[in-house]
Design a protein that fits this description.
With 387 residues, the chain is of the alpha+beta class. It is 51% helix and 20% strand. Helix 2 packs across helix 10, helix 2 runs antiparallel to helix 11 and helix 8 runs parallel beside helix 12.
């Protein structure tokens, strides 16, 4: 205990006496912290905007058209397949999900691009409603909007929104009443709005060849099982029972969202190299610091200080400076985040941020290991040039 107390005293005393120098290093660590936390938040935000709706689906399996490679936009099913899926033993319920892109007309000739999703009220695929209600019928000209739409447009419950949709070669406009609000339902980097299947078929953008089609097209079918623990077995059973389909679980569906895996891999690589740069910067500084105070360490050892005291003192010093830098960087990150508009896909997820902070706190001691090893190997006589 005496050794640890002495090491702590020496480390903190030096930090205080040379606070300008150590504050400069802490600010460098703070900037690295700022960069790492923003990269983590950007990666989480981009991933969330890509997978959020799918990850919150009330179901265990997703049915695609065979050879669609588990890509929602490439899958095209019909009502016959939906009925066949519902008849399979072990299926509790199944709901169709249809996806397209559209735009909401806002005041001052502005537009808000959104994902247009056709879902069946009360079936898997319908989002959890936080305010208002669901559709009255499958043909009601009603819409449920994501909270992000409210944040970006100030549209409220009970308002009417105008949808612009390209029908063949012309733009047409459809008016829908907002009857419900949901939260956290981004899809393909855009806020989502939900409408009944038959209205979706009428409203969605169409080519000339599709103008006379009145039967709702289905991209995928979300399946809720009576026994969720049997998801793998039920996936095979559905594949064997229904023709021309392939079945995936929710995680497989997310991983096959176009660009999702590559995007997350790129962001994680950026975060890794930022941490690596931090290790090198901190290691280089403390190595120079140790080289400058070789005579002082020699004196400490000559008067009886052990290698434990010298080593622990160096580790405490590195840890304290790193912790101060991470704290300043965390505060800077928080202040900067307050000024970002909602269109910037930043998500400061608790787990991701905690993991990033833990990694940042570890890079200090890790980067300073070389200087610690050098400090404990200093010979007093050589340090004092008496050998």
């Amino acid at each position: 205990m005496n050794s640890i107390f002495l090491a702590s005293y020496l480390a903190l005393k030096e930090v205080w006496r040379n606070r300008g120098r150590f504050l400069l290093v802490s600010m460098v660590i703070a900037l690295i912290t700022l960069l790492v936390l923003f990269i983590a938040a950007l990666g989480e935000g981009l991933g969330t905007n890509n997978r959020e709706y799918i990850s919150k689906i009330d179901g265990q399996l997703v049915v695609f058209l065979e050879k669609a490679d588990y890509i929602i936009s490439a899958s095209r099913l019909n009502q016959t397949t939906l009925r066949a899926v519902r008849r399979v033993e072990g299926v509790d319920s199944a709901g169709s999900v249809s996806a397209a892109n559209t735009a909401i007309l806002l005041p001052d000739d502005k537009i808000l691009k959104v994902s247009l999703l056709g879902v069946e009220s009360g079936q898997p695929g319908t989002p959890l409603i936080t305010a208002g209600r669901s559709f009255l019928t499958d043909q009601s000209r009603e819409v449920i909007i994501d909270q992000r739409v409210v944040d970006r447009s100030k549209i409220q419950l009970g308002d009417f929104i105008t949808i612009r949709s390209t029908q063949g070669t012309k733009d047409e406009f459809f008016e829908l009443k907002v009857v419900g609000i949901t939260s956290g339902q981004a899809f393909f980097f855009q806020p989502s709005i939900f409408i009944p299947p038959f209205v979706w078929e009428r409203v969605r953008p169409k080519s000339e060849a599709e103008l006379n089609n009145l039967t709702p097209a289905i991209n995928v079918i979300v399946v809720k099982l009576k026994d969720p623990s049997q998801a793998a077995a039920m996936g095979q059973k559905l594949h064997d029972s229904v023709e021309n389909i392939q079945v995936a679980d929710i995680q497989t569906t997310i991983n096959n969202v176009p660009g999702y895996s590559a995007q997350q891999g790129t962001v994680q690589t950026q975060g890794f190299f930022t941490l690596l740069i931090g290790v090198l910067v901190i290691g280089g500084f403390f190595q120079i610091q140790i080289l400058q105070k070789v005579p002082q360490i020699g004196v400490l050892k000559a008067i009886g200080a052990s290698n434990t005291v010298v080593g622990v003192s160096a580790i405490i010093q590195i840890s304290v400076v790193t912790a101060i830098g991470v704290a300043i960087g965390g505060l800077m990150t928080y202040l900067f985040s307050l000024g970002f508009p909602p269109t910037v896909p930043l998500s400061f997820n608790g787990n991701a941020s905690a993991l990033a902070i833990a990694a940042l706190l570890s890079i200090g001691p890790l980067g300073g290991l070389v200087s610690v090893f050098y400090a404990v190997r200093i010979e007093p006589l050589k340090a004092l040039r008496l050998s």
